[in-house]
Write a structure and sequence with these properties.
Blueprint (H helix, E strand, L loop, with lengths): L2 E5 L2 E4 H21 L4 H20 L3 H21 L1 H13 L1 H4 L8 H16 L3 E6 L5 H4 L3 E6 L2 H7 L10 E5 L2 E7 L8 E2 L2 E2 L2 H12 L2 E6 L6 E5 L2 E3 L4 H12 L7 H8 L4
Parallel strand pairs: 3-5
Antiparallel strand pairs: 1-2, 3-9, 4-6, 5-6, 7-8, 9-10, 10-11
Length: 272
């Protein structure tokens, strides 16, 4: 790699500039993602210690370098243990990126039609429902909290499961690859209790909570009003019509193509 310029005794190459840019970009994205959490303060402290460790190594301060390296190792372990939820959500954000989804099999578009029909029928009867559709990676831990079914997806089966007198109507149904994996599943509740000034019930908080922690899309039917909502990427969209629900599900299941590279990179560099 050819030399660009020199700063004293240091020679800077094009590879060095790329390296610096990538490290700076990664640190910036990590900070912008964590800045609204308690983890941000520890993250800044860790960056300061890493910088001091780099300076000590460059100046060959052996004792100080050994001490800082020891503190850094302990700090990293504590960071991982104390802030596991933030790290898990960060990895989910990375997995959701369209660039990585090019290599992941997505849900069949046929599921959108079936789920839409079932949700609309349940809405008409005001039968509460919570359907979680896996988009890329599975959620086996939550699947195992319910009744394992491994049944072929159909609108009639979904309506039967969420019939109020059915023993399986409580909890969530998890759908993966046109298969109903389980029913009566227990999901994590979101810490969000209100959206646009309106309180959220347990079913909506559960649908929103799983969308915050995994690459899924939750379809929620309110038992009180019959309204249909969707939770995706930690966002809740309420009061959807049948056509809007179908369009959102279809869009969520589509795999990015080469014609959408501009949109992909715009989303990649967008603030999380």
């Amino acid at each position: 790699m050819f030399d660009l310029f020199k700063i004293g005794f240091l020679t800077v190459t094009f590879a060095d500039l790329i390296d610096i840019f990538l490290v700076t970009f990664i640190i910036y994205k990590l900070y912008t993602y964590l800045k609204k959490t308690i983890a941000a303060q520890i993250f800044v402290g860790l960056m300061i210690i890493l910088f001091l460790s780099f300076v000590a190594q460059a100046m060959n301060l052996k004792v100080l370098n050994w001490l800082l390296r020891l503190v850094t190792d302990i700090w990293v372990i504590a960071f991982v243990i104390l802030f596991q939820p933030e790290i898990r959500r960060l990895l989910v954000v990375v997995a959701r990126n369209p660039i990585f989804k090019l290599f992941i099999k997505t849900e069949s578009l046929q599921s959108a039609e079936i789920i839409t029909e079932a949700a609309f029928e349940l809405s008409q009867k005001q039968h509460g429902a919570l359907m979680v559709v896996v988009k890329s990676t599975g959620i086996r831990g939550y699947t195992e909290t319910g009744e394992i079914m491994n049944a072929r997806l159909s609108a009639s089966l979904l309506e039967t499961i969420f019939f109020p007198r059915s023993p399986m109507h409580d909890g969530a149904v998890i759908i993966n690859n046109n298969i109903i994996e389980a029913s009566r599943c227990t999901l994590p509740l979101s810490t969000t209790t209100q959206v646009n000034g309106q309180g959220l019930g347990m079913r909506h908080r559960a649908g929103l909570g799983i969308s915050e922690q995994a690459d899924v899309i939750s379809v929620i039917v309110s038992e009180e009003t019959g309204s249909i909502s969707i939770a995706e990427d930690g966002q809740l969209y309420k009061g959807l019509s049948k056509e809007t629900l179908k369009n959102k599900l279809t869009k969520a299941f589509k795999t990015p193509t080469s014609r959408g590279w501009r949109r992909i990179f715009e989303q990649y560099f967008k603030e999380k």
